[in-house]
Amino acid sequence: MIDNITLQDVVPMSYGVQLMGGLFKAIIPRNHPYPVSKTQYGFTTVKDHQTAALIKIYQGERTLCNDNHYLGEFVVKGLPAKYCGQVTLHVTMSIDLNGILHVSATEDTTGVSKSIEIENENRELTESQINDFIEKAAKMKLEDEAIAETIEARNKLQLFAFDMRRRV
């Protein structure tokens, strides 16, 4: 007989949000036990005078959101109308004991915030589907890394162009 063993549920795939260019940013990594709460800082607006931000939530292991499982979205309104990249937000994801995913996004200077709850039935995948996602991610790893590098370079170029246009 074994004493003092605790079984704990883990997330089957990573949970995260969409970045500029459709990239997936994992916030809660695959196989992390829950309950859990993780916060990611440094999200910024991508247009000058942008007063709202769309937060799209995904589950998966691939580089692009389109290759992952879409879970839901919400809009944070009332952001300060500043230049591109000057408004920053942080996103918090948590999974409670019941397995419910809670996602919130908060603007860092004003505290403007919005949140959403995603019930289990809205994100449940079969074991076979999860295995397919994980196998595909492993097969496509090198290609996904190359795609990510290209998109990140394009994003940097776009932000540089915004900055140059603003300075002229």
Automatic annotation (TrEMBL):
<dbReference type="GO" id="GO:0140662">
    <property type="term" value="F:ATP-dependent protein folding chaperone"/>
</dbReference>
<keyword id="KW-0547">Nucleotide-binding</keyword>
<protein>
    <submittedName>
        <fullName>Heat shock protein Hsp70: cytosolic-like protein</fullName>
    </submittedName>
</protein>
<keyword id="KW-0346">Stress response</keyword>
<comment type="similarity">
    <text>Belongs to the heat shock protein 70 family.</text>
</comment>
<keyword id="KW-0067">ATP-binding</keyword>
<dbReference type="InterPro" id="IPR029047">
    <property type="entry name" value="HSP70_peptide-bd_sf"/>
</dbReference>
<dbReference type="InterPro" id="IPR013126">
    <property type="entry name" value="Hsp_70_fam"/>
</dbReference>
<dbReference type="GO" id="GO:0005524">
    <property type="term" value="F:ATP binding"/>
</dbReference>
<dbReference type="Pfam" id="PF00012">
    <property type="entry name" value="HSP70"/>
</dbReference>
